[in-house]
Amino acid sequence: MLFRLLHPLAKEDNNSAADSAHEKPHYILPLNTHLSLRDVEEHRAERTLRFRRPSFRAIALLSVILIVSAFQLAMIGHSLNTSLSDLHWMNSAPGPLQSEPFRQRPGTRPSGALKHHPSTDSVQWDNNILYVRNQPTFIISGEFHYWRMPSQHMYLDIFQKMRAMGLNSVSLTFNWGYHHLQEDKLVFVGVGRDIQALLDSAKRAGLYVIVRPGPYINSQASAGGIPPWLVNTKDVELRSLEPTYTNSWKQFLSELLPIIARNQVSAGGNIVAMQIENGLHKSEAYPDAEQYIELVTSFARDQGLTVPIFHSDMNRSNSFTPTDFPGIMDLYGLNSYPLGINCMQMSENLSVVSDYRQYLSNASSGSPFFLSEFQGGAYDSWGGEGYESCSRKTSMQFVNVFYKNNIAQKITMISQNMAAGGTNWGAIGSPDVYSSYDFGAAISENRVLRDKAFEQKLLWTFVRSSPTLATANFVGDSNQVPYSDNPDVFVTELRDQKTDAGYYIVRHRDTNSDQGQVFRLLIRSDTEGVRSIPGKSYLSLMPRESKIIVTDYPVGSKFKLGFSTLEVFMWTYFDRKPLVVLYGNLDEVNEISIKNAGNVDYKFYCIRDTEPFDRVDFKPMVTKTNDLRLSFTLSGQQRAIVNSTEYTILLISHPEIHRAWAPSLGSHVDPSVPVSNQILVLGPHLVRNISEVSGSGLAINGDMDLKSSDDAYVEIFAEEDYKKFFWNGQEILHFRRTDYGSFLFEVTMLSTNLAKVAIQPLDRVDWIFIDSLPERLQAFDDSKWIIADKQESNNRFFPPLTLPVLYPAEYGFYSGVVLYRGRFVGSAKGLSLDIWGGKAFAFAIWVNGEYIGSYSGESHVDHVERELEFPEGLLHDGLENLLLIVADQMGYDSRSDATEDGEAERHAIHHPRGIRMIELTPFSIDDPKPVFSSWRLQGNVGGDKYDDLLRAPYNEGGLYGQRIGGHLPGNIFDDWQAGSPFIGQLPGVTRQISPPSGVAVRLYRANVDVQIPAVMDVPLGIHMKGTGVRAELFVNGWQFGKYVSDIGPQDEFPIPPGILNTRGSNVIAIQVWSMNDSVAAGLHEIEWVKYGRYVSGYGAVPHEDYHGWYVDRSAQLAKYKF
Question: pLDDT tens digits for 153-166?
Fold first, then answer.
């Protein structure tokens, strides 16, 4: 075969026999993994193929090969009716290789009639694609958990970044427990819970919405999003037809679904699909799963939902497919995490999933292929590696290879989980996760764009710019057709029947390979027929790289690219002619073909520092069909341009292309806006939006990264009619047009804004503190505490082993630290207990005011059995003794799996929180067994009758400092002592008294001033470091961090604007619990962390509407005097 004969040309000509014996073929490139943006350019330069001058033997061999090649290409055309036509490779478009009328290609499915809800055709679908307002729409979505970002003023910031990344949709999961605070109290308004504001922000950013209202969501949320009061209701059977559960979710959805219905596309909104439940399938553990799903779906329809409905399936269980549930399920969604969803257990195997198409052809028959959750990162657990590790494992290379593989598999609906990270503030998360829910996502928890966000932008902007890709059919792949001369290169061909546009998705056959490859690609063009590209050289495929090569690519209605060895970023119209942006490795030989452009004059030149100059090594050729074919090498260049009166082609190197943006014109963009409405902008760190202003003006809104440059250039490829330009609201007084027609201006004086940033250091503020555990003293009056005297538990799955019931939730305390006070008279040797708190929980015990022991937690342990002996002389013989247990609850388990292991996993959400067993042990078996005479409990103020509805129900626990509101803004505490949370002294720094050693709990509080100009975005967090401590960080009343020094891994806690007042005073409170006698209730380090410095067009974030934060707890002060 020709392809095998070509391989010797890919090897270097070695003069040394010894070298030749040990040298690998030159088409293999070495691995360089985890490249950052700044590394890529250097990497490309080092690894670019440099072919040596061929030897005489190679020239002779080449001559033979060329003769054979000509003969074989002729034979290919001649044998189309036999070999290639057997694959039905061609379509009906005219061309020299056309041999028969179009027939359905293998692997494609006839689209059939469009399906839709009987009452509206605003959203339709067939086998291949979703249609929104009659337009075939490739759904590019990403998951965002608004309830992990309670600062609603930052929703638009996240959504604008998602849109800039090329996404056209956002997936929103609704947390039932976050809204259903009490059995009779649902909240869908106010800061952080305003669903209409959430949907409006997505619409304003230009995103469709996929809604996921549960009822059960998992999402590593406490109890999988089910309200804690319901979890602890007697006889409830979750995710079933049980009446209590059914009535509860109906109450929730009857409030939520009408809001969703009003925002469907058919009603002028942006909601296009809805998921029911999550990851459920019929089993012995869920015998009525099918009836339950049907009931929830029917209820949603009755509430006015007309968008297509789907269920998200786990583990390919074929659950609730449209085939098996016609009229109930419209789409089939599959969850897929090729590397695993837990960062600690992520696979090192980077092999792509190659059988999506085959599996989904059966599972989603009649609907588009839909990955309703695809890997955008992974969650990390207590004691884990940290999220930067998760991000590296799903890096730029992962995005490049795995996401393009999804396109090759004909996935036309995809939602990456997560697109943006968030925070498990308070106890809103399950014990599987710590405070951060960064997920290693493209947009980090601190709202910073990771490198892979820029790589996603390249792919998704291309997809958004290529309507014919959405309707392209699978033609064949390297298992059927020899598309490449290199057997280690795997190619999939998709082709649009109407336009004949071809898409060749190229990757390594073994995507685990750490070696690069060189190859030629066999393509088919409607005018040039079947040919190999590039003609006289090779393409390179770096380790862990994939490419999409286009042929017959339509740009508007009249212009086409015949083919391009560079990848397409986007296209639009510029100066009333098509503009196409191509990118890739400009150091290697590339070829582009422009259809019907052989007689059009053009200029081809490089661009350096925005100035064109003639330094191009290129070879033009006009084909017999009047196509212009350009072969060129642009060694060391970052940009070049092919410019004519009929088209402009911009060539940009990788990674220079990462600073290219394609916003759609309009401050409020419709997701279905035409591709031609895009405007190319080069230079900024981020472009949020672009819109026209009166007087022929163009306003660009975006961010500049001060780390990159003090002064920044912005280049806009816009129509010549524009006479004014504005950057972030400021008119640009000096701009010019380049020789090739773009507009160029400089944004200056950026650093002057940085000088106005003033953040008060945390080691130079006046700290005050209070003893937050006075309950250890016998003199403390607990007469107002809840009496724990229940003799029967609501938890029939994990009932208590001793009585009374000591599960705090059964007395209204669902999260945070809980205090237990038990009394007994007489002597006892010690006690034994079985206590449950979730992974990484902790507890400590005092008897008669004396500390006797503690458990500081383990990353994988959710309950502990312990036996303790009382020190001699500690008990009051014949008198009442007081036992105090302080225990931290870590949220409820989120898993509710139907596994073959039986009921245990089915009811994991019901794992108790509290003391399951506690007994006093006598000195001998002959002694009477001592018993507790009474128990009292204390958790958060009011239990489930919250006085702080803004942050309820997950924010607080029961320690004294929180009960009196010591963490809340607005309260004044004149009787607190001056004292620092810092342990020890720093040289040259005068500090207040540092804490002494010993098991204790202290709450520290300080007013801290932060001043960040409205034009700046400086993402901030607080770093804490200590030994043997647990600390909770409160910012203006919100618990935004739980630090466990002995488990980790988290020691930095991002705080979003809105929660943090960026233009004024903030109440910072830190509760520190020292876990043994050798350490102090303090920290070695507490400091601000700056995650970036951006001059931003987002604007100031309001803080005033959070001033309903004040909660008066002066009555609690009087209540707990002792």
Answer: 999 999 999 999 99
